[in-house]
Amino acid sequence: AQSVTQLGSHVSVSEGALVLLRCNYSSSVPPYLFWYVQYPNQGLQLLLKYTSAATLVKGINGFEAEFKKSETSFHLTKPSAHMSDAAEYFCAVRLFGNEKLTFGTGTRLTIIP
Amino acid sequence: GAVVSQHPSRVICKSGTSVKIECRSLDFQATTMFWYRQFPKKSLMLMATSNEGSKATYEQGVEKDKFLINHASLTLSTLTVTSAHPEDSSFYICSASSQGATDTQYFGPGTRLTVL
Lengths: 113, 116
Fold this sequence. Notes:
The structure holds 2 protein chains of 2 kinds. Chain A has strands at about 5, 10-15, 20, 25, 30-40, 45-50, 55-60, 65-70, 75-80, 85-95, 100-105, 105-110. By secondary structure, chain A is mainly β. Chain A is globular, with a radius of gyration of 13 Å. In chain B, about 0% of the residues lie in helices and about 50% in strands. Chain B has strands at about 5, 10-15, 20-25, 30-40, 45-50, 55-60, 65-75, 75-80, 90-95, 105, 110-115. In chain B, strand 9 and strand 10 form a beta hairpin. The chains are: A mainly beta, B mainly beta.
């Protein structure tokens, strides 16, 4: 079975500062990993995904994530936070050949002006 | 591309009535659609997976007679909450994938259901 753990249910950063949202996964086989963003009362929007190609994945809105097998991590980063980045972020894992996404518990990102 | 819509966005109903929520893939054919439920300040819980023309596969603990799912076409899936009760109040989100269920899932904007 696969699972993801998101460390920190709430993260606050100043506008212009580095954003780092942590995600660790557990999987018996190489996983596919995803980051989604959810704005209030909206569905989820795909930020980026790792599907066993390049370990550094670039997504939309300036976000990127690096797959580190040795650390079983897939942390999400953005060099400079913008007010519009305030949202809930979900890390998710899926195994190759398996249709089900397993989500982490989410991290609420607050941007301080 | 890869736009998924849901209708309605919000619905309020009385206890004991049934509510239908539609999920549509607007610019692609969705061979597989998923229905999730999200409780306040919580993550998404997969309720069921549906493939076009087939019966839905429900997750353990989800009442299939209460949450009826129909996936009659490659662009439309519906979730009907039958005999709704206040504990069914939640945010329901659908997602859709093309080229098989293992493709990327694209999510709809969600439906807020409130049962009085």
